[in-house]
Please model this.
Amino acid sequence: MTIKVEIYTRKGCHLCEVAEQVVREVRTQIPFELVIIDIEGKSELEDKYGEEVPVTLINGQRHDYFSVDKKRFKIALNSIVLLSN
Model:
């Protein structure tokens, strides 16, 4: 099963940069598809995620916002890997 992680971000967001760094670091250990989505200028996404960026989704399900807890993120990914085996 392919795991897809999406991070909703905006330019100049320090928390977004940190979250992306954590996600990319975990990706070296657990493979998954990563999609970075800049919400700037996209009113629907700004309305939905604007106050909470970065927002992280795993397979379309909201996982975290404001930050990414590395340990919790890895546990979530590993549980998907285990369920798919």
User: Anything to note?
Assistant: Helices lie at 14-27, 43-49, 70-84. The domain at 4-67 is CATH 3.40.30.10 (Glutaredoxin). The CA atoms of residues 50 and 77 lie 25 Å apart.
